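Subject: for your reference before the review

Hello V.,

The reviewers asked for a structural picture of the protein, and I figured it would be easier to keep everything in one thread rather than splitting it across files. Below is the amino acid sequence we used in the manuscript, unchanged from the supplementary table.
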Amino acid sequence: MKYFLAFILALASMLAQADQIEDKARKLFQVQGIVSSYQSLIDQGRAQARLETKQMLDQILGQLNPSKEFQDRFAQAADKYLKTLLTDRTAQEIVDVLIKYYAPNFSAQELDKLIEFYGSALGKKEAAVSKSASEKLMNHYKSENERIRISATNVFIKDVQLIAQQCNCAKPSKASEKK
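And here is what came back from the structure prediction:
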């Protein structure tokens, strides 16, 4: 029973220390502006996706002569595509994943020193670990984002093809216009 109690106390201490280290890493990321940096990247990516979707829709509509009903259906398909493509992932969720790769590399005392004095030798260690953790983070989301994009694009193309087929609104070819 003594060993079991000692084990439980040791486990509780380790868990508390891990939480403390993660909290300190969060504070460091806050001081460094990491969350706002990731949020800017997310916002830029979302804006780019909206622009590209609008460009695709404009290109599709430029090749067809659909009625208002079918223009609306094409727009709905584009909205559905964009909604699928744009995850609701937040900068904080990204930081939560980053902490898994980052925090275990430092003690609580080291994180305190980083927060206080970022230009020391310890700061250089942090830079190297951050680079490694950021690469792992990008790899973590890269395949998931690619899978989402491919799936959403395939569904969008099928939706647009079906709408175009139902619309029967292809622009007349140049040859048939001359007849």
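For the response letter, the relevant points are probably these. The two ends are 97 Å apart (CA to CA). The chain has a mean pLDDT of 81.

Happy to draft the paragraph if you're swamped.

O.
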